[in-house]
Amino acid sequence: MAGVAAPTLAMLMLVDAPAPAPLALVGGPILAVGLMGVGMIGAAAAGRLWIGVLLAVLTGAGLIVLARALGMPTLPHPFSTGLAVIIASFSFAARGALFARSAGDRGWWIAVFVVAGEAAMLLTASALPGALPDWLLVLLPAQWASTAIQTALTGTGTRAASSALLALAGTAAATLLVARLWPRRWPYLVMFTTWLGLSALVWHRPGPPMPRADLAIVAAPAGPIAPIAFAPPDAATASALARIRRQLEKWPAAGEADVTQRARNLLLIAAVADLYDTEPLQSHLPLLVAAELKARLPADQRAAILAGIAADPAAGSVAARETLAELGLPANVGDETPVRNRMGLYAARLAGR
């Protein structure tokens, strides 16, 4: 019940928060706590792995449906989100099954304490960035699940969080080995070695950082945009950028008949990512947008179009922001002012390129 009630309460408290798509920005930690609570405690109480997995997957699906009903934008990576939810559910349920096997009827009590401890650290790290050391967070399966899910919600998909997914799957397999060979003790050495080794993998290949929307910046009509990256992107980001270019050919907003509106739609690609502060993707998108503006706008009108948008970002439509999921990017809904401000700033910055 706690695995459902706590995330639901968190969503209801955040739904009116003054932030761009607040549920998407913290969806990773919220879903991770829900999956962990239901999957681990359910498997420990029932003594069956499959029950924990099923309950956790159903909880994850239900929480996503609730978030969508409360205003979370369309999922940019449905497959990646589903894969992260399934692997995390399996990993958490495996630990619950081990508690049931090793502690019998008291196994679910152990699961409750483990869930409470990891959830407290995960939520602390989300609410107070930097409060907990990185070396501690990389040891937490709940943090791995949060990273994988968050990357699917606002990032580039599962490839960028492959180390976290591998850690979840690997520790699940090692945990099930211990449960299967119980009461032998030597498999615990395998499990703890696997856990530490995969934690080291996550340390050396971390997923993208949590998005940190700066409300003071996004609400201001002027100010800096995110730094533009000129260094080559990493493999996961390069793959995401290539996918976005392919999807742009099929995105109706990129072929808008009105060239000024077409420019607005393209600028939204960089503006929304900046709004969500989704590194490393946000730093590489402006160059992609600049190339698309150059290719899709008449050369003799491009500078004037961008200057006009920069001078009056309130003009025209920003409805295309709701369809960015078609490009594999997080969409944006709600108050238009922050995204229009960002759009105008990018128009001014890219006008001279």
Task: Give the gist of this structure.
Keywords: Membrane, Transmembrane, Transmembrane helix. It contains 16 helices and no strands.
Task: Reconstruct the topology from this structure.
Elements: H1 2-14, H2 22-25, H3 27-46, H4 49-69, H5 78-103, H6 107-127, H7 134-137, H8 141-154, H9 162-181, H10 187-204, H11 215-219, H12 235-248, H13 259-276, H14 281-296, H15 302-311, H16 337-351
Helix pairs in contact: 1-3, 1-4, 3-4, 3-5, 3-6, 3-8, 4-5, 5-6, 5-8, 5-9, 8-9, 9-10, 12-14, 13-14, 13-16, 15-16
Structure description:
The chain crosses the membrane at residues 20-42, 49-70, 82-100, 107-129, 160-179, 185-203. Keywords: Membrane, Transmembrane, Transmembrane helix. The longest helix has 26 residues, at 78-103. By secondary structure, this protein is an all-alpha fold. The chain has helices at 2-14, 22-25, 27-46, 49-69, 78-103, 107-127, 134-137, 141-154, 162-181, 187-204, 215-219, 235-248, 259-276, 281-296, 302-311, 337-351. The model has no long low-confidence stretch (mean pLDDT 89). It is elongated. It folds into two domains: 2-204, no CATH class; 216-351, no CATH class. Helix 3 (27-46) runs parallel beside helix 5 (78-103), helix 9 (162-181) runs antiparallel to helix 10 and helix 13 runs antiparallel to helix 14 (281-296). It contains 16 helices and no strands.
